[in-house]
């Protein structure tokens, strides 16, 4: 009796050639295609193709809502950007993919999970860390990595086993995408001195071709999450879809980044994240209005650690859970609206309000005669604020002129 194996299947060259190879090794392969909002992908065709190339079963799961609610939402609330630039596009989908694969493995009695990652990238770590977390008893197969297939060898194997090479696989680029964004690498991009050609991009318009008139959109937040556009309530998934189109048309969300990979090498990455750019900018602006000073200053420290944990395949970890609990508490007051101006590659917050949680008091902030700020109180405040430094200086004269020395 054949051992049952569950394969994370994308329909690309790597996972397509993996199916006959795994069959030759003696596995009965169940291919799983996860819909996390891939742009322009015919997922029904991909599901059928898995059967065509030898899978015993093929399953298509719609996980867009779960991906948005359970994985994208924490990134928005936390303002998570790896190395200050990358909003964790691919890193977010991996734990969800494995969660679903492990569930299916348990349902069908599979002993093994397989993926199509190479040995160069981060995904091998993310996939396998999640497998070990969800069920350490499951075995792992990674044929592309373990046999170090070159692209030419994969194509030759595909030809020999009558595996159709996917349309676009002649392209030199490696692309991964979901509803949160699009990641592109390889080809000419591997030389960081080469500007990314326009053909690299699909979600964003070149600045020279963007409209000469700005668009404005008001984003409403509740507990740190977007819940409406221009007053119309909608799901996070719908908000992401609409903003990807609207902001992408203005060329917003292109990131060209030299990234420190988990495996220890530097990589040149191109990202298209139009919706993410708009939402993260708006969310941070509303936090500036509603978070108390010390919370606002400390939260970025937590966010940096969280971004590293997500990138480093530590989504399932005690520290992630603990830091995420802190983020959740801070977001209780992040309620209100932010008006965003979208124009020529820029997403700019131009107005904001919070009826219940705004910490901005115009009567305190104004420089006019109507100011309610007690300026006389500043004198005593400054004396107390500097008292410790003043006493230290009087005793030690580190910066001030020393007085007479006495025996």
From TrEMBL:
GO terms for cellular component: cytoplasm. Gene3D superfamilies: Argininosuccinate synthetase, chain A, domain 2, HUPs, Single helix bin. L-citrulline binds at residues 86, 122, 126, 174, 259, 271. Pfam families: Arginosuc_syn_C (PF20979), Arginosuc_synth (PF00764). Keywords: Amino-acid biosynthesis, Arginine biosynthesis, ATP-binding, Cytoplasm, Ligase, Nucleotide-binding. Its EC number is 6.3.4.5. It catalyses: L-citrulline + L-aspartate + ATP = 2-(N(omega)-L-arginino)succinate + AMP + diphosphate + H(+). Residues 173-389 form the Arginosuccinate synthase C-terminal domain. It is found in: Cytoplasm. InterPro entries: Arginosuc_syn_C (IPR048268), Arginosuc_syn_N (IPR048267), Arginosuc_synth (IPR001518), Arginosuc_synth_CS (IPR018223), Arginosuc_synth_type_1_subfam (IPR023434), AS_cat/multimer_dom_body (IPR024074), Rossmann-like_a/b/a_fold (IPR014729). Residues 4-164 form the Arginosuccinate synthase-like N-terminal domain. NCBIfam families: argG, PRK00509.1. Homotetramer. This is Argininosuccinate synthase. The lineage of its organism: Bacteria, Bacillati, Bacillota, Bacilli, Lactobacillales.
